[in-house]
Amino acid sequence: MKASLKLILLFFAICLFGSLVVGALVVLGLDLRVLVAGSSRIPFSAAFFLRGLLTSLPAVSVCALLLVVFYMVSHPAKSLLAVITYLLLGALTWGVIVPVSARLSGYYDRITFDWIGTAGGEDLTPHYFRTYNGNVYYYARVFRFSEASRDMYGEGLMIDLTGIRGKVGAIYSFKTSVVIRDSDGQFNDVIFKEAARMPPLVAVPVKMYMTLFSAAGKAVWSGVVAWVAFASLGLALLASAWLVSLSSWRFLQVFFVSVSELAIILLNYIVYAHLLFADLAASCRELFVRIGMGAPHVFSGMVDVIEPLALFVNVACIIVLCVLGLLGRRFAARNAYLSVTESDA
Description:
This protein has 345 residues and is an alpha+beta fold. The chain is built from 10 helices and 4 strands. Strands 1-2-3-4 form a 4-stranded antiparallel sheet, with no helix packed on it. The longest helix has 40 residues. The protein is elongated, with a radius of gyration of 27 Å.
């Protein structure tokens, strides 16, 4: 009982702390998008902070489950209650936390975009060097021709580093030129663009996660069947805990579980992002359509939402992991029996 309580406290502590940290990082990222250099205004939106919490909570809860497994490995307790607690936490994660977060996140998306539009209307400040398309601009004056005008205009200097005006390195003056904010419109002031750029080591996992989170959002809005199909990912991740029986070494136990979960997530990302297996995915989709024709009241409207190949991959992973876990337990029991037999002899 004590071990189960520790697992529950550990899970919720990680979820709470991790979500607050990631939510704060999301707000910081938004600040960099709407801030203007030289401005004392520091924007904040409670709605965006909640969106950051909701977006990060599924990832944090899945990581918390993995850390729960690590804790069970480092503090082994031969108790069925601890295993049941782990399974209940998994059911809570994939039955409540992930679907509710995916559903509410879509609601806060709309609020956030409206707030960004309001907070992002501040004028740029002069007397700063800004880089745009490889050239450097210095605005000595920034103004609008009228209060109703959406465009800002500026006077200043341009350092031509690309040769667009003729000579590389030449300095040109300009007047009444439209002020440049950002080429892709994501930042209110281009000065903060480099500061907000994520390194590849962070950007790649974030991209993978947002692809899966988007798929979760589509599934949760498409009904129970669609969500169950997506949640097969969660069952596969939970089944990876079976691999602790493959070795008595704690390091190898942690290694096997970690690698299997990373492999499952990577396979699902590849399928949902349509990076590989396009022909196989198309065949699985055709099969799903045929099945859906036999039960249109169940599968109606979900053909474009459910990714059958991901479902097949996850079911295959669950079967393989369970078989490996059972074999590991059998070998462990056999070795224990042989050890006892040899000691008696």
